[in-house]
Amino acid sequence: VKVIVNEQTGDLESIFDKVHQREVLAGAGNQIQTFQDQGQYWDAWNIDPHYAQYPLEETQLKSLEYLETGPLRWCLRVVRQWRESEFCQDYILEIDSPILKIVTRVDWRETHVLVKVAFPLTVANDFATYEIACGAINRSHQEQEKWEVYGKNWADLSDKSGKYGVSLLNNCKYGYDAQSNQLRLTLLRGATW
Prior knowledge:
The protein is an all-beta fold and 193 residues long. Helices cover 0% and strands 52% of the residues. The chain has a five-stranded antiparallel sheet with strand order 4-9-16-15-12, with no helix packed on it. Strands 5-6-7-8 form a four-stranded antiparallel sheet, with no helix packed on it. Strands 11-10-13-14 form a four-stranded antiparallel sheet, with no helix packed on it. The chain starts with a strand and ends with a strand. The model has no long low-confidence stretch (mean pLDDT 93).
């Protein structure tokens, strides 16, 4: 994998799959997106189906620093500010690995805010696949009631041929949403109930 990072925003400009000789991203990746989050009925349990109509301001890049540049591993730290909160993300590439790891730590000081991270992709399909207990499920993102869906440790968007796909793997978040060529992972919410 070859990665290019925008030095002005900290977003991923390019993830190039060397094995399959193709670009993975269709636009800036790892975009931290914030939305007003008042909940629909219960503050901590429901996400308003119209949250996307209430975007908030973008994060501001605070610093970008290489922590490691060795022959076996590279690590780039990107720190972003959003209001009183701070996002610290390490982009980690290891030799012979097809995986770009993004380790995220947040000093969160906000309420009633929904935070997602977006990855626009060069693959497209009418559904995404999500890990669930004891298996996986395909879910159409054309249905209006699918603005947020459960996925245990991964979500995948593969092209219609099924020969190429991109997966988001994670170890602690369970909310996703997908569009025909984008996967987003919900990072956190600022509920007060």
